[in-house]
């Protein structure tokens, strides 16, 4: 069962980076502008953000394996639509459906809680968490190789095949969970949250392209904040809300979500900066690698995520989620600071990125464990999905921040071939600051002994 769920995490994470190497080709292939082609990434990110809290709640109510299969089915349908799409509109639909595979990891971790003993969960969650990094790292090189050998449509046919195989494996090896959250699904809350998330995510992801002070960006940002406030007011007055905001406001859960936001920022910074350092010309501050060579180099940090998962699992079993999150965040901060001088060769860039991956492996394991130990068993999918959503928002903020900094560097023209060392150093300092903020959030989480005294679920003592 665990290998199947890990495969699901890899396939889900692949969707976010699978089209990145193809973006320069899509304007010519689909007869659109480069700005329009960028929507093939944006639409998937927005779809993922919207689907995670909704499918998480549905998984708690209607069965986790059932909604897991629905999520995989949407991913397969999206991949198939992209593979046969005659033009850009159909590609947009397909990429939106692929984003609905994002809840696979959060739902999968909830299934682990339902089926494994507490002492087995640490290693299993470490592997599940590592699957995110593996999929994200494999996306560019795999897509490059497939596109070279099978054409760009072959990339999506391969994704379709992987999704079908995953669907069959889940049917065969993943048991159905008897746990259910009672009540009716909050349709009004789901619709309102979806609209609010779209309004929030669009300015974050497109603000740099549209202009931060443009009327559209400002209007969407204001509308998003107002709608989120209205949604929270609406949810707090329901007996059976889609998201239990009172539970989310508890100190442990709130600090875990806050830490997840900063971890999301620190996570994407690693791949963004590493890609820049490897691909930029030598006349700037880069190593001048091709897209394919860069993708191959990025496999190493993803591999380290897997190799570090037993360490993350042992730390979780021995010290609990709070200490693991503290240590992992500290490793992240130190690794990002160490990356500033370690940029002089391909080996230095890759090795320093691998050290960041060690911290990420520990942090990725700690976050869901703290969620599982802090919410009722019939709410774990929704709570984990909300934490995944927060990390997604953090990653979007990181992507936008890097784009703004690099864009400013290019306008200043400090170095002809791209951003200089000082610019990339500021980006790495920002990532280190995010990791330190996650560390502070972890320090504010109640200790394991206190959590065990006040918790009603025996799993709290093991995971918190």
Write the layout of secondary structure elements.
Blueprint: H1 2-17, H2 26-30, H3 34-37, H4 39-62, H5 64-84, H6 88-99, H7 104-115, H8 118-150, H9 152-173, H10 187-210, H11 215-236, H12 245-248, H13 251-279, H14 291-297, H15 299-307, H16 309-339, H17 346-372, H18 380-412, H19 421-443, H20 448-454, H21 459-463
Helix pairs in contact: 1-7, 1-8, 1-9, 4-5, 4-6, 4-10, 4-18, 5-6, 5-7, 5-9, 7-8, 7-18, 8-9, 8-14, 8-15, 8-16, 8-17, 10-11, 10-18, 13-17, 13-18, 13-19, 15-17, 16-17, 16-19, 17-18, 18-19
Percent of residues in helices comes to: over 70%
* Average pLDDT figure: 83
Taking the sheet with the most strands, its summary is: none
Q: Per DSSP, what share of the residues sits in E-state strands of 2 or more residues?
A: under 5%
Number of helices: 21
Distance between the termini: 24 Å
What low-confidence regions span 5 or more consecutive residues with pLDDT below 50? 451-458
The tally of strands reads 0
Molecular shape: globular
- Please state the structural category: mainly alpha
- Element string (H = helix, E = strand): HHHHHHHHHHHHHHHHHHHHH
Radius of gyration, CA atoms, in whole angstroms: 21 Å
Description:
With 464 residues, this protein is an all-alpha fold. It is 80% helix and 0% strand. It has helices spanning 2-17, 26-30, 34-37, 39-62, 64-84, 88-99, 104-115, 118-150, 152-173, 187-210, 215-236, 245-248, 251-279, 291-297, 299-307, 309-339, 346-372, 380-412, 421-443, 448-454, 459-463. Helix 4 runs antiparallel to helix 10, helix 8 (118-150) runs antiparallel to helix 9 (152-173) and helix 15 (299-307) packs across helix 17 (346-372). The longest helix is centred in the N-terminal third of the chain and has 33 residues, at 118-150. The relative contact order is 0.14.
């Amino acid at each position: 069962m665990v290998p199947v769920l890990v495969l699901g995490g890899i396939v889900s994470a692949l969707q976010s980076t699978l089209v990145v190497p193809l973006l320069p080709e899509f304007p010519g292939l689909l007869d659109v502008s480069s700005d329009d082609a960028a929507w093939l990434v944006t639409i998937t990110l927005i779809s993922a953000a919207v689907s995670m809290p909704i499918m998480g709640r549905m998984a708690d109510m209607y069965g986790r394996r059932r909604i897991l299969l629905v999520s995989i089915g949407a991913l397969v349908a999206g991949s198939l639509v992209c593979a046969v799409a005659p033009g850009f509109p159909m590609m947009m639909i397909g990429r939106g459906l692929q984003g609905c595979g994002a809840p696979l990891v959060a739902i999968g971790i909830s299934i682990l809680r339902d089926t494994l003993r507490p002492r087995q969960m640490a290693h299993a969650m470490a592997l599940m968490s590592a699957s995110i990094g593996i999929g994200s790292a494999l996306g560019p090189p795999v897509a490059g190789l497939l596109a070279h050998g099978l054409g760009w449509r072959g990339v999506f046919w391969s994704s379709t095949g992987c999704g079908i195989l995953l669907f069959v494996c889940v049917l065969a090896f993943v048991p159905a969970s008897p746990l259910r959250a009672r009540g009716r699904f909050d349709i009004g809350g789901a619709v309102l949250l979806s609209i609010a998330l779209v309004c929030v995510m669009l300015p974050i992801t497109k603000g740099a392209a549209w202009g931060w002070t443009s009327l559209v960006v400002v209007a969407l940002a204001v509308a998003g904040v107002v709608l989120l406030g209205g949604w929270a007011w609406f949810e707090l007055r329901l007996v059976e809300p889609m998201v239990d905001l009172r539970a989310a406001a508890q100190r442990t859960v709130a600090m875990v979500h806050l830490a997840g936001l900063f971890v999301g920022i620190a996570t994407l910074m690693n791949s963004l900066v590493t890609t820049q350092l490897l691909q930029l010309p030598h006349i700037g501050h880069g190593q001048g690698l091709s897209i394919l060579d860069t993708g191959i180099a990025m496999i190493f940090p993803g591999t380290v995520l897997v190799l570090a998962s037993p360490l993350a699992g042992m730390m979780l079993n021995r010290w609990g989620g709070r200490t693991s999150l503290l240590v992992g965040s500290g490793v992240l901060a130190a690794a990002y600071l160490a990356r500033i001088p370690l940029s002089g060769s391909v080996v230095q860039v890759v090795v320093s990125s691998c050290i960041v991956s060690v911290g990420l492996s520990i942090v990725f394991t700690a976050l869901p464990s703290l969620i599982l130990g802090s919410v009722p068993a019939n709410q774990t999918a929704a709570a984990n999905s909300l934490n995944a959503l927060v990390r997604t928002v953090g990653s979007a903020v990181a992507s936008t921040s890097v784009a703004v900094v690099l864009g400013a560097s290019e306008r200043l023209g400090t170095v002809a071939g791209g951003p200089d060392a000082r610019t990339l150093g500021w980006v790495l300092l920002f990532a280190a600051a995010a990791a330190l903020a996650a560390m502070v959030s972890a320090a504010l989480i109640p200790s394991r002994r206190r959590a065990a005294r006040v918790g009603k679920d025996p799993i709290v003592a093991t995971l918190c």
